[in-house]
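stuck on this one:
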Amino acid sequence: MVNGKKLNQIIIKILKKNGLNTNHAKICSKALINAELVGAHSHGLSRLKMYCDRIQKKVINPKPKIKIKKISQSISQIDANNSIGFVAADIGIKQAIKNAKKTGIGLVGVKNSGHYGLSGYYAEQAVKKNLIVFCFTNAPPAIAPHGARKSLFGTNPICFGTPTSTKVPFILDTSVSVINRGKIRVAARNGKKIPKGVALDKFGKPTTDAKKALAGVQLPIAGFRGSGLAWMVDILSGVFTGGNHGGKVKDPFDDFSGPQNIGHLFFVMKPNLFVGNYSERIKENIKRIKRLPKIKGVKEILYPGQSKRKRYKKNINKKINIIRNIAEDLKKLNA
């Protein structure tokens, strides 16, 4: 167990030792700790060693020369120069917010980036500025296109956020696989089983063995519909931005043959573009749904983002629990 302030210092020290400047190390540390606080452990400390390994193998550039190209008042393109994904995405969402504040709409495409953690983390930055936001990013092959036997699409998250009438934003952040790949990796590392119905082994048979699942295929949500959504995200964040796509994104844990060149797309807009009373309308929308009759055992109908915020508030003043193998990683990285 370690408190957040101490953990932040440790992570910053490790990342600076690996060549990041102080500002970039702080951006990364904040995102990693946030993942732990909201309970998304698969996107938190369990990935720190991977990022450091990729820096050491020279497939993440710790000192990138990031270029922002202005296409219009509303649209920007960012070449992240193989930066660590946290830094590229932080610059990307901030540029999209800046553009939206000027013109009402901000569209930013990022290429030559890497894994950026939780999409919802960036969506929340826009929502805090009273903006509506979509975030898209592609990922290494994990899901087979419908009708194919070989994985090609990533678990490609879809993320949407909007301000609400409360301090708790509406943020839907979901992968298009039944469970995200990070959870399977954590299970494999800790020798635990995964749920039934989430993956097939390399022979196409259902499996609860996490290692066999990683070598096989993950199942998408809703069958061919989930596969279609994964394809959509691959087009938006890969084809459209100039990033890798069509199964070309490299696995960050296993493939050190080159940079990932992941693409991100941030689409941000003012909520009052069509109606002046958006805040009242979203308040009424949420109220109507929360008033619906509930099934047995349900005390409250929650909107996306509420559960995560509750976990964050519960954990913010607690020490962070670090499991043994990750504690050993931190100790080695910090040696």
Residues 141 and 152 are 4 Å apart (CA to CA). The two ends are 19 Å apart (CA to CA). Strands lie at 67-70, 75-79, 105-113, 132-137, 158-162, 170-174, 199-200, 217-218, 262-269. The first strand starts at residue 67 and ends at 70.
